Amino acid sequence: MLDFRPMDTLVWVGLGGNRGDVRATLAGARAALAAWSDGPLEASPIYASAPWGDGDQPIFFNQVVGLAPTVAPSALLAALQAMEARFGRDRATERRWGPRTLDLDLLCWPGVRSADPSLILPHPRMAQRRFVLAPLFEVAPAPVELPAASPEEAAAMGYLLGNCVHCHHGREKGDNAAFSLMPAALRANTVNQPTASSASGDGIRVVP
Length: 208
Known about the structure:
By secondary structure, the protein is of the alpha+beta class. It has four helices and twelve strands. β11 and β12 form a beta hairpin.
């Protein structure tokens, strides 16, 4: 059982899909998420990216949304899975990393770490996914700490995103190395590299 108390800081959820009218689905998902937030959502731009893990499918559209939930992490996870089903996702029949109408991932919850297989926080594969990190970097109002395999992995991700990663070792003995996404106003260290994303003509950003 996770300890929980309502927090002023935002919880981050990743949204994505590549079947049907994805932009309409993302809009519907944002409206559904708003009902679980004690305050307005913080939504990133929508990003287009190549499929992750299974390339034989259409491109994905992804977005990150911040909300201030008043329920425990496990209850929010259950709500996210119910939203996926409402928008046509069937986890029982889909192939792993295959096409889906809507994918909702609970990415990170400030002050909460969990190794429970049913809900690992922060999300264990965040550091590998530019389609998560790029929109999160655009919208996060404060540093977001993520697990990383090594400082070298963090530095590599900093090169890919451009000027946004501050790398540091674990603060206490036994901690894993970690890195923080640093919003522009809070960057402590910068690397003069171009950003990994660019905007397309229809307002969709592209993750190469």
